[in-house]
Amino acid sequence: AYRSEDPRLQLSALNNIAGVYRYSGNYEKAEEYMLKALELWDDNEKLDVDRGQLLLSLGMVVTVLDRIDEAQEYLHQALEIFKENKEYDLMLQTMSELAFVMERNGEFAQSMSVYKSMIPLFKYDNDFRSVLTTEQRMGGVSLKMGLYTQAYAQLKHSLVLSDSLGYDVQKDSTLVRLIK
Q: pTM of the predicted model, to two decimals?
């Protein structure tokens, strides 16, 4: 399929090959095939494969390769596509990845801003597990920012939420963060 003349088959093959490399831990090869897929998509914009998902995956791969600025660029592009297409699940997944990358890059205020903007969207969907995880991450960012009172409040709230929802794993990880 990769050598086929049909760009849809080529794109599908490139994505599949990239996925195999990604999940086997060969991120350099995964990136190589994702970039080929992106180039093919750019040459054939009418393809029905989602460019946003490709950019999200590419952003995640280059994050692992420790190219944070590049990761942010891909993730911002993906986020715009998902917002435009009203693909909320993918938008939230991209926002979460973007906030993580910003945190990793020491951009704590920006990371916190992205996390805060996610909470109402998760609540709207009654996705309290994601609310819990996001509040835990916010508590961790607050700790890194030296905002200990804020971190304590966020982590205490996530502890109460995890207890009320019966999520013992999240409860344990919140307790670990509170001990710090």
A: 0.83
